[in-house]
């Protein structure tokens, strides 16, 4: 149960801190943190929770990461479903908390026809810069693939484990710097689902891509590291 609580709180913090920074702090005139600040916020959520609870659960906070670690031989199959459920619940509770906070602002409402509404992910007209479904799929696939290679490499028994959280957090920052204009950045099915539930409409209909592409990317990354990069001796 400690592992599942750790995944719940870690994923809550990721969504609350990352999506919260986009919703609450990014667009304030002259003082807003902007594109770079949101990217850094997502990285900081993972970095801080990796050191806070990573020693308890492994610090996945992402269904795609759990699946990729399983494929890479670092995580038992029997724990996959409980981890994924804990991550999704943590993400949805975080999104609900953000909704409750934003509801206290006069005039707040979610427009399900707007790209990036409530920090949701999307493609075509729901992409921040109008990128196609193909572009969105390729970006989410490739970025999650490399995210898994970084995670597996940074946590390898031959690596300096003290810096694993830093490397992984900075990797997520870089991923957001690359892909916010494309999909509003997912690489995390739980993060995408939590926001889409509150938006509904087309963003919810498009959430399938933000499960399929990251999971396929994670599987590929896990296989690449296990077979070509890891120490198989």
Automatic annotation (TrEMBL):
Q: How does it sit in the membrane?
A: Multi-pass membrane protein
Where's it found, cell-wise? Membrane
**Does this entry carry the keyword Nucleotide-binding?**
no
Q: InterPro entries per the record?
A: Aquaporin-like, Aquaporin_transptr, MIP, MIP_CS
- Any single Pfam family the record assigns to this protein: MIP
Q: Which UniProt keywords apply?
A: Membrane, Transmembrane, Transmembrane helix, Transport
The keyword Transmembrane is annotated on this UniProt entry: yes
Q: Which residues cross the membrane?
A: 35-53, 80-102, 130-151, 163-183, 203-225
The entry sums up its family as follows: Belongs to the MIP/aquaporin (TC 1.A.8) family.
Q: Which NCBIfam families match?
A: MIP, PRK05420.1
Q: By what name is this protein known?
A: Aquaporin Z
Look up and give the organism this protein is from.
Flavobacterium jumunjinense
The uppermost taxa in this organism's lineage are: Bacteria, Pseudomonadati, Bacteroidota, Flavobacteriia, Flavobacteriales
Point out the gene that encodes the protein: aqpZ
């Amino acid at each position: 149960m400690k592992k599942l609580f750790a995944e719940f709180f870690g994923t809550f913090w990721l969504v609350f801190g990352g999506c919260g920074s986009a919703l609450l702090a990014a667009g304030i005139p002259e003082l807003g943190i902007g594109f770079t600040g949101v990217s850094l916020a997502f990285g900081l959520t993972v970095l801080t929770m990796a050191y806070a609870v990573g020693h308890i659960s492994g610090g996945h906070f992402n269904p795609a990461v759990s699946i990729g670690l399983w494929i890479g031989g670092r995580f038992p199959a029997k724990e996959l479903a409980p981890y994924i459920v804990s991550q999704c619940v943590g993400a949805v509770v975080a999104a609900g908390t953000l909704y409750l906070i934003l509801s206290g602002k006069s005039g707040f409402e979610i427009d399900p026809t707007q790209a990036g509404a409530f920090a949701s992910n999307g493609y075509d007209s729901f992409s921040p810069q109008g990128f196609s479904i193909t572009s969105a799929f390729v970006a989410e696939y490739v970025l999650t693939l490399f995210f898994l290679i970084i995670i597996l490499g940074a946590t390898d028994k031959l690596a300096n484990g003290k810096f694993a959280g830093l490397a992984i957090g900075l990797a997520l920052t870089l991923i957001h710097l690359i892909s916010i204009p494309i999909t509003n950045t997912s690489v995390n099915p739980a993060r995408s689902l939590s926001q889409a539930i509150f938006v509904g409409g087309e963003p919810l209909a498009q959430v399938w891509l933000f499960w399929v592409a990251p999971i396929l990317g994670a599987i590929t990354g896990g296989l690449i590291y296990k077979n070509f990069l890891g120490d198989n001796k």
